[in-house]
């Protein structure tokens, strides 16, 4: 297996994430898209770490940090979505238009 | 101590604003009176024969920026300082007793006066710029709070124009200091001519346009009629009498002083520009129906003479230009003041409505008489200060720019035309007794006009008192400038 | 490896200021749990402020440490980071001063608010000194996630919720993009994560001109630009500023932004010197867009918080001028401007908070005639806004002057001229607010001002607000006139930072001084050279050959 394949998969995943980010109306789906992007990064880091840095495996360490922080981010994100659902009874992005100039 | 001239008014302004004093007008009057006396004392100590800076003060401030606290006076700034102190006092004295928000009003006036004094004294480019910008907001507030109708529009226009002028000047200053490779903005260090001519011309044009907005010169003048008309009388006196002089001073100090080569090259163009300003101002003034507006346009014309005198750059014309700054300041102040009085008493400024104020019983005889005097001074009738300065300017410029000078003399003639219109309509003719129930003119309103009238008259018959301040400085400035033969113009005149 | 040598290697002394903030944070949490919400609100804020000030004092001792690199290269406590950490800690302390009354009045728990704010501060402070990709990411996220929480702190307010959600989604996606850039950097450098070694490894691998590096750069800039709210990554700013609790906005606009700039300097200068022309070009574009759009759109705003949001976008554009220049004077003018910005922007927000607390609105039209009812507030807000507009002799004037002077020295004429023009525009909208407060006649007074309650400074939490207001007022009016110490601080922070000095290596002295002796000969040449370059002409010595 070559490094390029991993990178391509990661790039594809990242693009899917971006697509989902732009196109989703449901806030939870947007959060999931962001997770996809982060996972693409993780894949990148793992691949680089495996092929280029097999001794120090800094990339793998980095990945662990990313996963931990992504979990924190998702937790905070879901909490905010929950709060907004309680107030507005919806998680549809198009409905959030209180703030506009 | 020159600093007193800046900081005394500023401290006074802070005191009036911060302390709950009842008699804020009295306090402001005392403060400005003290400053006036102090200025006269400095003038008394002034050495006429010395063309260089006197009474210099220096304090290191922001060395990395090249901004230091450097003050000094010479024959260019001293007459203007006296004008500033006098007109500040007059403006405060002539303001109405029942002014709204008196504490803010008087503190802003004092603040402006201190800042203008600082600008006249500053010998560091950035320091000058700082003081130049400081008066921006106080003047904005003075116009927009105490002004007449359309004051918001006028004040905003004034603010934006002035801010733009500041930006242009800053660009010129930064450019000059950087290109000269200097590490300080000190004025003295920047004099001399080591820049290529075309760069000098670019920088000088920035300075000219920047200060040209302030003076103002046609076509940068559009803020002026609105602002002068909208401002209340004391503010208009300061605007026209002092602030416009700041622009002319800036052109001389930072245009002529820093870019003499470029100045000499551009001089024919400047003279023509001045002529256009003079003729435009005079012609438009003739067409006005509102006397305050008429006086405002007359100011555009008169400021043109100053530029003409500077462009000709003979010792005589330069002295004339400096004298013209003072003379115009005094004349504009008395005119604005009297127009203010007329408006307050009669209730209108419309030429078509005003009539026969000279009427000794029902009219405003004293005010009218003084108005006639002001108009005559403005039109350059001999025996008054306006004549002295205009004569010096024309006498000095004729040898260099005959055509332009002659056109400017025509401009003086036009001035006489519109003042005759003004005086004829307002003062003479038959007063309609049915509507003429004017309130009494108080001494508060007469005294400033009397003081100004006496000064105008006195300096008119004793011009040496005015001219001697700036003579040696003017000679020095001319000597520092290379002589460029204006061959095309000379050919035209042949 | 024995403990002593490990301790030497870790060099943990450099993060004492952060440790102090951390201990304060723990104290606040624990004491809140022990003594209960009501009682803790009495004094936890003061503990937090004391802790932050102690941290600033500790930073003072960090100023001249011999070996600033700690945790095996994770953290670099050099002079530049010290200044930025100081700015962040001070902004947090001021934010707490102004938030006490606000949080009490909103009926939420004060100690929790302070805890989250301190966490954000911690993240920001670590971010200013992070010298390694993992550390950068972790501290960036610490700052960001606590900022999301702060934004949504008033959880019963749907506007606050919405602001938090928008901020979170945009923030998280921008940090994901940033992270993707970081992973590319890691790969291109062949497994390096320390910023200082990345560029060397990339250069030695012969990838200096690779497209991958440019992609990594663009992605990294996206992350940074989001933090400093530069156009076109600014869309969140107005919404978040409008919806969030006002003290939070104050912190975001100063503390969080300063952290973003610290990251920008460190990352761009140390990790991307190979593509310095490219990043300078990109940042120039962002600066131009920010100055123009921020200042122009601000003209049309009717809400005070939105006005300040756009104004802060414009201000970020000004600060970026300093970043782009790549000279000593550029960086130090940027640091100086941020210090001054701290006073004036926080002062403005203190005033807005005070007004909102009394009237419950932040519409600009509601400020009409405030002069009559609250002269102190009017004065303070006017001074702060005019200072933001760059009116002398206030602090902001000197900040802008220094920035423009530095820009001019480095030959960035178009940027400086644009900066001047946009500051003239900005004066218009700042003065509009001043006009509203000062110029309006008593009969034009707005309803909110008519019903303006008398000032009662004895209510709980009002005293700190008053202290914050008065000190911001004094600092804004005098910091400019007495700015010599700040100047020296800003200059020293750049001169004593090895990373910047290395980057500037070939142009140690300011450009103008270098040229002074031979100026007359070089001049004509120089000028033609400058005028032919289109966007920004960089000093020749900076362009890496």
Automatic annotation (TrEMBL), chain A:
Protein name: NAD(P)H-quinone oxidoreductase subunit 4L
UniProtKB keywords: Membrane, NAD, NADP, Oxidoreductase, Plastoquinone, Quinone, Thylakoid, Translocase, Transmembrane, Transmembrane helix, Transport
Pfam families from the UniProt entry: Oxidored_q2
Record-stated family: Belongs to the complex I subunit 4L family.
Reactions that this protein is recorded to catalyse: a plastoquinone + NADH + (n+1) H(+)(in) = a plastoquinol + NAD(+) + n H(+)(out); a plastoquinone + NADPH + (n+1) H(+)(in) = a plastoquinol + NADP(+) + n H(+)(out)
GO cellular component term of the entry, any: plasma membrane-derived thylakoid membrane
EC number in record: 7.1.1.-
Gene: nuoK
TrEMBL record, chain B:
GO MF annotation list: NADH dehydrogenase (ubiquinone) activity; NADH dehydrogenase activity; ubiquinone binding
Pfam families: Proton_antipo_M
Domain of life: Bacteria
Subcellular location: Endomembrane system; Membrane
Example GO biological process: ATP synthesis coupled electron transport
Keywords recorded for this protein, A-Z: Membrane, Transmembrane, Transmembrane helix
Classification via InterPro entries: NADH_Q_OxRdtase_chainM/4, NADH_UbQ_OxRdtase, ND/Mrp_TM
Keyword DNA repair: no
Residue spans crossing the bilayer: 6-21, 26-43, 69-92, 104-122, 128-146, 158-178, 198-217, 229-252, 264-287, 299-319, 325-342, 363-388, 400-423, 447-467
Domain NADH:quinone oxidoreductase/Mrp antiporter transmembrane: from-to ranges: 122-415
GO CC annotation: endomembrane system; membrane
Membrane topology annotation: Multi-pass membrane protein
Protein family per UniProt: Belongs to the complex I subunit 4 family.
Role according to the record: NDH-1 shuttles electrons from NAD(P)H, via FMN and iron-sulfur (Fe-S) centers, to quinones in the respiratory chain. The immediate electron acceptor for the enzyme in this species is believed to be plastoquinone. Couples the redox reaction to proton translocation (for every two electrons transferred, four hydrogen ions are translocated across the cytoplasmic membrane), and thus conserves the redox energy in a proton gradient.
Record-given protein name: NADH-quinone oxidoreductase subunit M
The organism of origin for this protein: Myxacorys almedinensis A
High-level lineage: Bacteria, Bacillati, Cyanobacteriota, Cyanophyceae, Leptolyngbyales
From TrEMBL, chain C:
Catalyzed reactions per annotation: a plastoquinone + NADPH + (n+1) H(+)(in) = a plastoquinol + NADP(+) + n H(+)(out); a plastoquinone + NADH + (n+1) H(+)(in) = a plastoquinol + NAD(+) + n H(+)(out)
Topological category with respect to the lipid bilayer: Multi-pass membrane protein
Top enzyme class: translocase
Parts of the chain that traverse the membrane: 15-36, 43-63, 83-103, 110-128, 134-153, 165-186, 206-226, 247-269, 281-300, 307-325, 331-355, 376-398, 410-431
A Pfam cross-reference name: Ndh2_N
Domain spans labelled NADH:quinone oxidoreductase/Mrp antiporter transmembrane: 130-426
Keywords, comma-separated and alphabetical: Membrane, NAD, NADP, Plastoquinone, Quinone, Thylakoid, Translocase, Transmembrane, Transmembrane helix, Transport
InterPro entries: NADH-Q_OxRdtase_suN/2, ND/Mrp_TM, Ndh2_N
Naturally occurring in which organism (per UniProt): Myxacorys almedinensis A
EC number of the protein: 7.1.1.-
Protein name: NAD(P)H-quinone oxidoreductase subunit 2
Compartment list: Cellular thylakoid membrane; Endomembrane system; Membrane
GO biological process: ATP synthesis coupled electron transport; photosynthesis, light reaction
GO-annotated molecular function: NADH dehydrogenase (ubiquinone) activity; oxidoreductase activity, acting on NAD(P)H, quinone or similar compound as acceptor; quinone binding
Classification via NCBIfam families: NDH_I_N (TIGR01770), PRK02504.1 (NF002701)
GO cellular component terms given for this protein: endomembrane system; plasma membrane-derived thylakoid membrane
Similarity field: Belongs to the complex I subunit 2 family.
């Amino acid at each position: 297996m070559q490094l390029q394949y991993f990178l391509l998969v990661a790039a594809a995943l990242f693009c899917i994430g971006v697509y989902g980010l732009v196109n989703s109306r449901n806030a939870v789906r947007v959060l999931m898209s962001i997770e996809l992007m982060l996972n693409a990064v993780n894949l990148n880091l793992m691949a680089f770490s495996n092929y280029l840095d097999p001794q120090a495996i800094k990339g793998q360490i980095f990945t662990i940090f990313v996963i931990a922080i992504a979990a924190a981010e998702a937790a905070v994100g879901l909490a905010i979505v929950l709060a907004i659902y309680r107030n507005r009874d919806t998680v549809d992005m198009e409905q959030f238009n209180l703030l506009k100039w | 101590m020159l600093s007193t001239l800046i900081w005394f008014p500023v401290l006074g302004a802070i005191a009036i604003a911060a302390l709950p004093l009842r008699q804020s007008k009295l306090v402001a009057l005392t403060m400005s009176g003290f400053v006036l006396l102090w200025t006269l004392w400095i003038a008394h100590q002034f050495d006429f024969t010395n063309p260089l800076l006197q009474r210099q003060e220096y304090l290191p401030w922001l060395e990395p920026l090249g901004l230091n606290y450097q003050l000094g006076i010479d024959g260019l700034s001293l007459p203007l300082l006296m004008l500033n102190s006098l007109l500040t006092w007059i403006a405060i004295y002539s303001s109405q007793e029942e002014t709204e928000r008196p504490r803010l009003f008087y503190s802003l006036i004092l603040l402006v006066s201190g800042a203008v004094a600082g600008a006249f004294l500053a010998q560091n480019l950035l320091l000058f710029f700082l003081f130049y910008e400081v008066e921006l907001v106080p003047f904005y507030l003075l116009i927009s709070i105490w002004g007449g109708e359309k004051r918001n529009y006028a004040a905003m226009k004034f603010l934006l124009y002035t801010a733009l002028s500041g930006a242009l000047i800053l660009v010129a200053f930064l450019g000059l200091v950087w290109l000269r490779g200097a590490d300080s903005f000190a004025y003295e260090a920047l004099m001399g001519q080591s820049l290529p001519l075309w760069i000098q011309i670019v920088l000088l044009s920035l300075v000219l346009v920047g200060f040209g907005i302030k003076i103002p010169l046609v076509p940068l003048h559009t803020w002026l009629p609105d602002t002068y008309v909208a401002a209340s009388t004391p503010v208009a006196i300061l605007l026209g009498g002092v602030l416009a002089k700041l622009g002319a001073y800036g052109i001389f100090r930072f245009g002529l002083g820093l870019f003499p080569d470029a100045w000499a090259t551009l001089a024919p163009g400047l003279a023509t520009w001045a002529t256009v300003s003079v003729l435009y101002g005079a012609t438009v003034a003739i067409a006005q129906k509102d006397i305050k507006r008429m006086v405002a346009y007359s100011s555009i014309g008169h400021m043109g003479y100053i530029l003409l005198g500077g462009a000709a750059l003979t010792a005589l014309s330069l002295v004339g230009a400096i004298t013209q700054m003072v003379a115009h300041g005094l004349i504009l102040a008395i005119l604005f003041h009297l127009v203010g009085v007329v408006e307050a008493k009669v209730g209108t400024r419309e030429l078509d409505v005003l009539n026969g104020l000279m009427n000794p019983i029902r009219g405003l005889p004293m005010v009218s008489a003084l108005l006639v005097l002001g108009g005559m001074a403005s039109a350059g009738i001999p025996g008054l200060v306006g004549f002295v300065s205009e004569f010096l300017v024309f006498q000095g410029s004729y040898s260099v720019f005959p055509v332009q000078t002659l056109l400017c003399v025509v401009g003086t003639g036009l001035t006489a035309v519109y003042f005759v219109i003004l005086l004829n309509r307002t003062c003479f003719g038959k007063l309609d007794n049915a509507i003429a129930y004017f309130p009494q003119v108080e001494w508060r309103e007469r005294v400033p006009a009397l003081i100004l009238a006496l000064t105008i008259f006195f300096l008119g018959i004793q011009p040496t008192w005015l001219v001697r301040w700036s003579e040696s400085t003017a000679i020095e400035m001319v000597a520092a400038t290379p002589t460029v033969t204006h061959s095309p113009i000379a050919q035209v005149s042949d | 490896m024995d403990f002593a040598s490990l301790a030497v290697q870790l060099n943990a002394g450099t993060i004492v200021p952060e440790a102090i903030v951390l201990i304060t944070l723990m104290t606040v949490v624990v004491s809140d749990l022990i003594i209960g919400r009501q009682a803790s609100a009495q004094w936890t804020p003061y503990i937090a402020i004391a802790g932050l000030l102690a941290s600033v004092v500790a930073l003072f001792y960090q100023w001249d440490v011999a070996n600033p690199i700690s945790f095996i290269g994770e953290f670099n406590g050099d002079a530049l980071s010290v200044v930025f950490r100081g700015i962040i800690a001070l902004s947090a302390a001021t934010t707490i001063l102004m938030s006490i009354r606000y949080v009490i009045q909103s009926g939420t728990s004060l100690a929790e608010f302070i805890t989250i704010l301190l966490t954000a501060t911690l993240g920001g402070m670590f971010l200013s000194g992070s010298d390694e990709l993992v550390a950068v990411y972790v501290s960036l996220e610490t700052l960001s996630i606590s900022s999301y929480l702060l934004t949504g702190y008033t959880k019963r307010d749907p506007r606050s919720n919405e602001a938090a959600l928008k901020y979170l989604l945009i923030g998280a996606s921008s940090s994901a993009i940033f992270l993707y850039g970081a992973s590319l950097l890691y790969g291109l450098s062949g497994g390096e994560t320390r910023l200082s070694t990345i560029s060397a490894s990339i250069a030695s691998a012969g990838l200096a001109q690779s497209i991958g590096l440019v992609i990594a750069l663009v992605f990294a800039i996206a992350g940074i630009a989001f933090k400093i709210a530069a156009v076109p990554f600014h869309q969140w700013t107005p919404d978040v500023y409008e919806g969030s609790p006002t003290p939070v906005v104050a912190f975001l606009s100063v503390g969080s932004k300063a952290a973003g700039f610290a990251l920008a300097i460190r990352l761009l200068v140390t990790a991307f010197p190979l593509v310095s022309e490219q990043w300078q070009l990109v940042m120039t574009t962002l600066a131009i867009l920010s100055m123009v759009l921020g200042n122009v759109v601000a003209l049309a705003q009717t809400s005070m918080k939105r006005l300040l949001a756009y104004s802060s976008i414009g201000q970020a554009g000004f600060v970026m001028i300093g970043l782009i220049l790549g000279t000593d004077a550029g960086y130090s003018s940027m640091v100086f401007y941020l210090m001054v910005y701290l006073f004036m922007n926080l002062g403005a927000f203190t005033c807005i908070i005070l007004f909102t607390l009394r009237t419950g609105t932040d519409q600009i039209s509601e400020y009409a005639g405030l002069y009559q009812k609250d002269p102190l507030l009017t004065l303070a807000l006017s001074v702060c806004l005019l200072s933001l507009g760059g009116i002398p002799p206030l602090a902001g004037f000197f900040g802008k002057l220094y920035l423009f002077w530095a820009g001019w020295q480095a030959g960035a004429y178009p940027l400086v001229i644009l900066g001047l023009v946009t500051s003239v525009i900005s004066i218009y909208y700042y003065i509009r607010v001043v006009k509203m407060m000062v110029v309006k006649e008593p009969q034009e007074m707005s309803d909110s001002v008519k019903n303006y309650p008398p000032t009662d400074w004895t209510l709980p939490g009002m005293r700190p607000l008053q202290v914050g207001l008065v000190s911001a007022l004094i600092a804004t009016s005098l910091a400019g006139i007495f700015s010599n110490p700040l100047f020296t601080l800003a200059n020293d922070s750049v001169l004593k930072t090895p990373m910047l000095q290395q980057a500037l290596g070939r142009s140690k002295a300011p450009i103008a001084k270098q040229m002074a002796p031979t100026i007359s000969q070089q001049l004509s040449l120089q000028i033609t050279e400058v005028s032919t370059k289109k966007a920004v002409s960089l000093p020749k010595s900076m362009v890496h050959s």
